């Protein structure tokens, strides 16, 4: 069997015995030790929002700060303009926000036809690189974040962490989602002559609404 | 691994005269090395991360069987299947069998060097399965039926006009009749064409940047978002990757993520970094029902315990290519291997043989830049030297070269004669230069081979040793 062949080939070249290596690996994995975490990934909560905004702006993402969750619909309309076709994901929909005060056209999740914009929640943010983490789940297709022309993400500031390790600790508390994605800016490609173009396969624009309360 | 590296000398001689390649390589070299330097300067901990990354990989390689088994156990627990392939052929067969099980007619692919290495796409196509590359660069070269010329920017050898021509020729059949000339429009058209492919594919095939043993998680890094669509829309996802990609924990993956984008293109982090663990869960709104990981050896285990083991730390960031004076002069295709530049010069003979790929480790000036920028501190020049030794021991290099080196060795161990020879050499070269130029563009006899494509610095009037003695 190929499995045995590969493992035998590896083992025949390694020092020590199989059991010792197994124990070493199990101990190393179990320790879940943090390696060097850069200073920029460990800043105090007050400093993180500004840091997040600055880092995301560097990669052409935009942000807006809102006092309350109920400000989200107006902020979405302000960003997209009246009449935009938005698909609001289940997590945000469940918040019963005052969408009726806006003139946005709500469309259901339909990958084939597409929409102007998808509004979604997120798992958390990491200020170190202006990164947000989204995940797949029940009522939450991962692909929702990739099929709109633009993507608006709602991020409560309490869920804005310093670095990636904090996000890992959070998702490890429950069952890991099938698919967790760190998003740091809109989709882009430099494959033609090394010049960055936005909107390669995913959204052309990424806008994060940071909720203060 | 099948390589075509015996023609390196002829191919590189043609490549250095290719003006459009020169422009592309200029853009690549200047752009990426500057961006990397900025990113490194912006992160005080950068070098500390490199040391840690090297140590993590060393630990993984020393216990590789155990980490792979841990990874496999977790994938299985999540409901996925791990396949092991000792050779490229076994890998291709395993992937084809999964595709057949899924009744696959079309497959979308995100970028993966291992699938290039095992020549997967031609194999699928030969068995009636349409495989579409979705990374823009890979898509362009797939249309042109070319091989990648760079490990992360596969179409870097082409310019915008060539892409425009390629799209016009191929997309016309699909009803796109306009010849596009703007870069943004070309990207937009590919987006449009490929969107349907994503939505219609039966199987999605990806590579892996890292495998996390702790949880059986596959880490994928892209800027375009194509990997995410490839891995969440079709009913079956196949990950094809090398056995050396495993890291112990999420924390370890974080260290590598902090290095990868910065080393590759000066990016703090790539736009998208995905962590994929098993198939779709009960009730999930999307995601594949079948999740397979194919672990490919194909010559890697042979390098363990040898002077080439350190090469298995490579994270395919491309920094060594982007800083290599040889790669930037001849481009990727001359190497005749999907792995090119300094990393390819060490890895290619490892995965094939020094007999087939002997030219590659010889194509180095030993400037040391590759090792200086490598995020996992791989001693590439030392390993190229080790390959040269093996080549020489096996008498695979040309007879003239072996005798020449032996002659030089004799001379170098006889200082008086060596000095006399240097003085004569200096005299001859300065005569040719007629004292008025700092570079020679012609040299006599066999030395003329050197000046055919480059200049030679005119030596100073006295040798270093003579100057040193003067100073004493
Ligand atoms: S050898 Fe080092 S610099 Fe070159 S691609 Fe691999 S990791 Fe990057």
What does this structure look like?
The complex is a heterodimer of chains A (213) and B (472). With 213 residues, chain A is of the alpha/beta class. Helix content of chain A is 30%, strand content 24%. Chain A contains seven helices and twelve strands. Among the domains of chain B are: 8-158 and 202-300, Rossmann fold (3-Layer(aba) Sandwich), CATH 3.40.50; 406-471, no CATH class. Chain B has helices spanning 8-15, 19-41, 46-62, 64-77, 88-101, 113-117, 120-126, 136-143, 160-171, 183-200, 226-232, 250-265, 319-322, 327-330, 341-351, 354-357, 359-362, 369-373, 380-393, 399-412, 415-433, 448-453, 464-471, and strands at residues 81-85, 106-109, 130-133, 203-206, 210-212, 217-222, 236-242, 246-247, 272-276, 290-296, 439-440, 456-457. In chain B, the strands form three sheets. Chain B has a six-stranded parallel β-sheet, with helices on both faces. A four-stranded mixed β-sheet of chain B has the order 8-5-6-9. In chain B, β5 (210-212) and β6 (217-222) form a beta hairpin. The chains are: A alpha/beta (213), B alpha/beta (472). Residues 314-320, 343, 373-376, 378 of chain B line the site of iron/sulfur cluster.
Please name the defining characteristics of this protein.
heterodimer; A: 213 residues; alpha/beta; Rossmann fold; 2 domains; six-stranded parallel sheet; four-stranded mixed sheet; 30% helix; 24% strand; B: 472 residues; 23 helices; 12 strands; binds iron/sulfur cluster
Helix proportion range of chain A: 25-40%
Tally of separate domains of chain A = 2
Q: Give the beta-strand count of chain B.
A: 12
CATH class of the largest domain in chain A: Alpha Beta
Largest sheet of chain A: 6 strands, parallel
Poorly predicted parts of chain A: none
| Strand percentage of chain B | 5-15%
Quantity of strands of chain A, as a count: 12
Largest sheet of chain B: 6 strands, parallel
Estimate the mean pLDDT confidence of chain B: 94
CATH classification class of the domain at 8-158 and 202-300 in chain B: Alpha Beta
Rg of chain A (C-alpha, Å) = 21 Å
Oligomer: heterodimer
Based on CA atoms alone, the radius of gyration of chain B comes out at 25 Å
**Annotated CATH homologous superfamily of the domain at 8-158 and 202-300 in chain B:** NagB/RpiA/CoA transferase-like
* Physical arrangement of strands within the biggest beta sheet of chain A: 1-12-7-4-2-3
SS strand fraction of chain A? 15-25%
According to CATH, the fold-level topology of the largest domain in chain A is Rossmann fold
Order of helices and strands of chain A: HHHEHEHEEEEHEEHEEEE
Q: What is the correct CATH architecture of the largest domain in chain A?
A: 3-Layer(aba) Sandwich
Low-confidence stretches of chain B: none
């Amino acid at each position: 069997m190929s499995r045995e062949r590969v493992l035998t080939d590896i083992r025949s070249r390694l020092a020590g015995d199989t059991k010792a290596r197994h124990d070493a690996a199990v101990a190393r994995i179990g320790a879940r030790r943090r390696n060097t975490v850069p200073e920029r990934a460990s800043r105090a909560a007050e400093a993180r929002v500004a840091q997040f905004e600055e880092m995301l702006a560097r990669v052409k993402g935009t942000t807006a700060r809102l006092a309350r969750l109920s400000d989200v619909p107006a902020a979405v309309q302000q960003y997209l303009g009246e009449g935009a076709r938005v698909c609001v994901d289940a997590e945000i929909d469940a918040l019963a926000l005052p969408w009726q005060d806006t003139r946005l056209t709500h469309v259901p999740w339909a990958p084939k036809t597409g929409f102007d914009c998808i509004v979604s929640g997120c798992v958390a943010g990491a200020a170190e690189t202006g990164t947000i983490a989204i995940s797949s789940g029940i009522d939450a297709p991962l692909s929702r974040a990739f099929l709109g022309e633009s993507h608006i993400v709602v991020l409560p500031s309490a869920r804005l962490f310093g670095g990636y390790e904090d996000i890992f600790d959070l998702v490890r508390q429950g069952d890991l989602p099938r698919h967790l994605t760190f998003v740091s800016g809109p989709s882009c490609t430099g494959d033609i002559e090394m010049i960055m173009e936005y909107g390669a396969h995913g959204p052309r624009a990424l806008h994060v609404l940071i909720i203060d309360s | 691994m099948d390589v075509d590296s015996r023609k390196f000398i002829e191919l590189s001689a043609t490549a250095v005269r290719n003006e459009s390649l020169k422009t592309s390589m200029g853009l690549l070299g200047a752009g990426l090395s500057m961006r990397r330097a900025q990113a490194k300067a912006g992160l005080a901990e950068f070098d500390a991360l490199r040391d840690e990354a090297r140590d993590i990989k060393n630990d993984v390689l020393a216990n590789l069987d155990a980490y792979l088994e841990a990874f496999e156990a977790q994938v299985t627990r999540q409901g996925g299947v791990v396949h092991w392939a000792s050779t490229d052929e076994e890998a291709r067969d395993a992937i084809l069998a999964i595709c057949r099980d899924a009744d696959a007619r079309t497959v979308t692919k995100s970028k993966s060097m291992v699938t290039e290495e095992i020549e997967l796409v031609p194999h699928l196509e030969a068995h009636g399965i349409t495989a579409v590359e979705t990374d823009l660069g890979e898509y362009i070269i797939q249309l042109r039926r070319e091989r990648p010329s760079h490990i992360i920017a596969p179409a870097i050898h082409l310019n915008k006009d060539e892409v425009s021509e390629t799209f016009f020729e191929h997309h016309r059949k699909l009803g796109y009749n306009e010849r596009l000339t703007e870069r943004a429009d070309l990207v937009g058209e590919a987006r449009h064409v490929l969107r349907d492919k994503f939505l219609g594919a039966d199987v999605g095939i990806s590579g892996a940047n890292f495998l996390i043993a702790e949880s059986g998680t596959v880490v994928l890094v892209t800027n375009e978002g194509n990997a995410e669509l490839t891995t969440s829309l079709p009913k079956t996802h196949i990950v094809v990757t090398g056995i050396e990609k495993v890291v112990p924990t999420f924390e370890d993956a974080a260290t590598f993520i902090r290095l990868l984008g910065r080393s590759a293109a000066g990016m703090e982090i790539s736009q998208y970094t995905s962590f994929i663990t098993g198939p779709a869960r009960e009730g999930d709104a999307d995601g594949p029902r079948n999740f397979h990981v194919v672990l490919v050896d194909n010559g890697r285990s042979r390098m363990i315990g040898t002077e080439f083991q350190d090469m298995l730390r490579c994270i395919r960031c491309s920094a060594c290519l982007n800083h290599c004076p040889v790669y930037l002069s001849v481009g990727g295709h001359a190497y005749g291997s999907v792995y090119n530049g300094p990393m390819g010069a060490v890895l290619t003979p490892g995965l094939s043989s020094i007999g087939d790929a002997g030219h590659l480790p010889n194509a180095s000036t030993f400037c040391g830049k590759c090792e200086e920028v490598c995020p996992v501190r791989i001693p590439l020049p030392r390993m190229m030297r080790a390959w040269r030794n093996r080549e020489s021991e096996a008498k695979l290099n040309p007879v003239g070269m072996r005798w020449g080196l032996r002659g030089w060795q004799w001379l170098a161990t006889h200082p008086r004669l060596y000095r006399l020879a240097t003085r004569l050499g200096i005299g001859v070269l300065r005569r040719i230069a007629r004292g008025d130029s700092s570079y020679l563009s012609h040299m006599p006899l066999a030395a003329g081979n050197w000046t055919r494509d480059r200049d030679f610095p005119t030596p100073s009037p006295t040798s270093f040793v003579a100057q040193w003695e003067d100073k004493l």
